[in-house]
Amino acid sequence: MSGKRIGIGARPLADPQAEAWIRQGAAVDSGKIERYSARLTLDVTPALRTRIKLAAFDRGVTMAEMLREVLEKQFPEATT
């Protein structure tokens, strides 16, 4: 090593708007984690995956959102 020390600058001043925006995103993500805490893996053909992906795109949603809706309709919660 050369022995030359390079100082690290001070942390930039916090931007309150940026901090609030980051924290807001974290709150949204934590809600998803609590609601969707189980992962389901399903093997499908590439052709079926393509059809699902295109249908989700046409509807303006993600594949996961669309498939959750399909599964909810097919397997509703039992009412007692």
Summarize the structure in short:
This protein has 80 residues and is an all-alpha fold. The chain has helices at residues 16-35, 46-59, 63-74.
Task: Please explain how this structure is put together.
This protein has 80 residues and is mainly α. 57% of the residues lie in helices and 0% in strands. The protein contains 3 helices and no strands. The chain has helices at 16-35, 46-59, 63-74. The protein is elongated, with a radius of gyration of 23 Å. It starts with 15 loop residues before the first helix and ends in a 6-residue tail after the last helix. This is Chromosome partitioning protein ParB. InterPro entries: Ribbon_hlx_hlx.
Structural class: mainly alpha
Outline type? elongated
What is the overall pLDDT average?
80
Secondary-structure element string = HHH
Gyration radius, rounded: 23 Å
Helical fraction: 55-70%
- Alpha carbon gap, first and last residue: 73 Å
Number-wise, the strands total 0
* Strand-residue proportion: under 5%
Number of helices: 3
Unreliable stretches, pLDDT < 50, 5 or more residues? none
* Largest sheet features: none
